[in-house]
Amino acid sequence: MTVTIKDVAKRAGVSPSTVSRVLSGHPRISAETSRKVKIIMEEMGYHPNIMAKSLVSRTTNSICIILPKPAEELFSNLFFMELIRGIVTQASRSGYDVLISSGATEKEELEAVSRLLKGRRVDGAILLYSRKGDAVIDFLKEEGYPFVLVGRSDKYDDILSVDTDNRMAAYDATSHLISMGHKRIGFVSGPPNLIVSRDRLEGYRAAMEDNGLELKSEWIVEGEFLQESGYRAMSFFMNLPSRPTALVVVDDIVSFGVLRGLSELNYSVPADLALVSFNNIPLSELSTPPISSIDIGIYQLGYTASQILIQTIQKQVNEPGGTKRHIIPHRLIVRESSMYSPGGK
Amino acid sequence: MTVTIKDVAKRAGVSPSTVSRVLSGHPRISAETSRKVKIIMEEMGYHPNIMAKSLVSRTTNSICIILPKPAEELFSNLFFMELIRGIVTQASRSGYDVLISSGATEKEELEAVSRLLKGRRVDGAILLYSRKGDAVIDFLKEEGYPFVLVGRSDKYDDILSVDTDNRMAAYDATSHLISMGHKRIGFVSGPPNLIVSRDRLEGYRAAMEDNGLELKSEWIVEGEFLQESGYRAMSFFMNLPSRPTALVVVDDIVSFGVLRGLSELNYSVPADLALVSFNNIPLSELSTPPISSIDIGIYQLGYTASQILIQTIQKQVNEPGGTKRHIIPHRLIVRESSMYSPGGK
DNA sequence: CTGTTAGCGCATTCAC
DNA sequence: GTGAATGCGCTAACAG
């Protein structure tokens, strides 16, 4: 049923090697033979067997994406799909296929990665998250497989990664609120075991300190990347004796919860509480009021991750001089949720 | 560097065939040999080469997902990611890998599918959309490759597919509005070349007719699966001499645009215009007001698609008696956007 | 320029 | 029960 090189060769009256040479665009081949073989391949509907090719070339022309397991519902959907789009687009352009993998537990995740890399099904991997003390990173680094991390590792400084400068992004977001005249600014954070939560919190702290503003621990709450987290935080914040007039929120989705919470408590945004969050998902401009957000270029993050991974794979050699950590620039999109100066200015 | 069966065999003092037999759980093998070999495999860190395995077994244990090319921004993100999650989860459980593919144009898409299937890199494919007259479907059907369509084909009745009963779903949504006392009901549709748009429109029409309600062509607008479509539709609808009091909207995302449009025109939902839409994305309950929506079980759609594809692949034989079209049940989630009866009831 | 040979790592015949 | 041989489809040396 399947048409092989051998079949084509027989039909064309040449040797299999010749056909193979035509396929790979070998230089030392007569133009006429090449043309003839190509026509016959077309006629017979020849398609190279990718597996056989990989087996002998010891390279698969494909990479894999490791989806994190947890139930980060909303966050995952919007954020990861955009990331995946970037990765798949770039990989396609470079002639690479993308394999998606996930595991129910961290152990399963590791098994999947191990099977894929050690079984030589893929040439490299992209990790879409950065937890504290991640076993998958340890494995990949130890075994020396090409991989890139979207995010930052707290353990290793010398691994390939693509990231937002989250510290600076949070600094910028906070500074914006300060420049609007806010002095009491709170922070709604994400899960403390994610590096991104910690980096953003740190940036917020730095901005507050640099501007000589008070930093109250009760103005900082931790939660998930879920709207519920923002929702719950509100009943807490608004009952504080000295409540903040503005909030930096770790993710747009959480902001949606914040908005809902405030509306139920009959507070209005931005008059009672101004808001800036992160990621600038498309829906943040559709909420009432539209949310100010730091755009981190998610698609670009994915696109770049794929690019540097494939470069690394093709280079073989790990040149020690290369940049390991790639930063995608962010920018603040100011919308209605932060357009208010307290103190009646 | 790589450990092969041969290496293990040499170290264990047995033949490669024996090791292979242990690997595949062959029955005629002495318990002791089996144990010994397994230990050595563990010690040496043996991992089967997936490519070599596929080459000889003529099966890859992987399937591919074809992402549609267009820029269906929001729709894609939320909807497809959920679908993918369902597919990947089920495939993993069945021991299958999932490959994601897309093309910039329909031609590229076809090339990718062809390369993957004909090149024997995957055993089957899942199509995530259903356009009118899709060339990819023609190809897959003609060549006899296992595939399943998430959606419905207008051309073939006998292909494997997983779908919502969109006609009935729209009928239900419309009936709900009618039962609330609405008589002038409009419909905001999606791209007319997508089957889903047409099915939902048809269900709306049927419900209107069955209830003896007038069906005005100016109450129906077509657009994209984007919030802009809903936004634009509003300035049109609300300027109609006899404007509808309720709307069935083809997708939640479009409803977001509708809400924004109405709020800018100073109309309120549901008092001035009641709303029901489809897909029940997580954010539909977060908007103000929360949107009534038909939940179509997106994750389930993906999960089922993967399941029947893999079943088909493993069965080899296409038993003619089997069900080709699988319907995932939907249900209406009533929220504030439709909780209003016109005429002051 | 072209043909011959020898594997890539594995599974599946056969023999014994 | 186990070992030896053969081939999956292809590429990469070798020779000419």
TrEMBL record, chains A, B:
<feature type="domain" description="HTH cro/C1-type">
    <location>
        <begin position="4"/>
        <end position="33"/>
    </location>
</feature>
<keyword id="KW-0804">Transcription</keyword>
<dbReference type="InterPro" id="IPR010982">
    <property type="entry name" value="Lambda_DNA-bd_dom_sf"/>
</dbReference>
<dbReference type="GO" id="GO:0003700">
    <property type="term" value="F:DNA-binding transcription factor activity"/>
</dbReference>
<dbReference type="InterPro" id="IPR028082">
    <property type="entry name" value="Peripla_BP_I"/>
</dbReference>
<feature type="domain" description="HTH lacI-type">
    <location>
        <begin position="3"/>
        <end position="57"/>
    </location>
</feature>
<dbReference type="Pfam" id="PF00356">
    <property type="entry name" value="LacI"/>
</dbReference>
<keyword id="KW-0238">DNA-binding</keyword>
<dbReference type="InterPro" id="IPR046335">
    <property type="entry name" value="LacI/GalR-like_sensor"/>
</dbReference>
<protein>
    <submittedName>
        <fullName>LacI family transcriptional regulator</fullName>
    </submittedName>
</protein>
<keyword id="KW-0805">Transcription regulation</keyword>
<dbReference type="Pfam" id="PF13377">
    <property type="entry name" value="Peripla_BP_3"/>
</dbReference>
<dbReference type="GO" id="GO:0000976">
    <property type="term" value="F:transcription cis-regulatory region binding"/>
</dbReference>
<dbReference type="InterPro" id="IPR001387">
    <property type="entry name" value="Cro/C1-type_HTH"/>
</dbReference>
<dbReference type="InterPro" id="IPR000843">
    <property type="entry name" value="HTH_LacI"/>
</dbReference>
